[in-house]
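Checklist before submission:
- one chain only
- standard amino acids only
- sequence pasted in full

Submission:
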Amino acid sequence: MKNLIVATDLSERGDRAVQRAFLLASRLPASLAIVTVIDDSLPAGIADTMVRAAEAELAHIVTAHPLAATVPHEIRVVRGDPALAIAALAAAERTDLLVLGVHRDRPVADFFRETTMERIVRQVGCPVLLVRRPAVAPYGTVVAAVDFSPASATALCKAAELAPEARLAGVHAFHVPYRGLMPADAVGSFLGEAEAAEAGWRRTESLPAALGKVALLEGAIGQVLTDAVRSEGADLIALGAHARGGLHNALIGSFAARMIRDAPCDLLIARPA
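Returned file contents:
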């Protein structure tokens, strides 16, 4: 990864994304564009004033960062719809990674429509890193949701690239239908299917050397992944999205959207090229 973009709304949430982006850019190493968007639906005079204020605030944020002197970077203030403008810029610049801060919690509005983060993730082809926690150190432990698809392999490889020194743990959730009506040994057949799927996946995909045996766990993906993050002490979750443009509904569906809105730690979403 040589070209990163971090988009900020100039809030504390956005500041965390800028901190993480500088840390990643310094370690990869990579160049960094720090971007904010001014709504183009505003009257021209107001928009002009906001552009100047945003440029000054971005300059202040960047100047105060200790890595600004060593990381090649630039400041950009663009006009437009935030989701569309950021997605268009990421495509035009062929960015290798888009870094975003978590969105402002709006329970009523978010219930009826997508958040800006969801719209961006849906539209871009590059990996997206959603930053929730302050960037005090490089990532130490990554937990990846694995469905034995090319998307999962891509997410693992991108996570290993971002955090080459981190411990990498994969988890796969399998479902046993009508669990209460199944014989006691029924779980074994479903576990065997998962083991066969993992073996085939390992034969066909290029995976990070740091990845050990994937934990095969019975249960819903949401609970399995949340438990794994807690037990592993993870500071980054990796999820794969499918190349057709949507998050893989068969595996994670509404859980992926919930993770985008309220992940317990930072979240990396990637799809195959």
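Reviewer check: The two ends are 14 Å apart (CA to CA).
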